[in-house]
Amino acid sequence: MRYHKQVLTSVIMKEHNSTGIQILEAAKVLFAEKGYRGVSTKKIAEAAKVNEVTLFRIFGSKEKLFEETFEHFFFNPNFASLFNLDNLSFGKVLQKFGEVLHSFFVGNISLIKMEIQNQDLVMKKSLNKFPNEIKQILSNQFKQQKGLSDNMAELQAVCYMTALHGLCLNLYIFQSFTAEIKFNDCLDILVEKFR
Question: What percent of the chain has pLDDT over 70?
Answer without folding.
Answer: 81
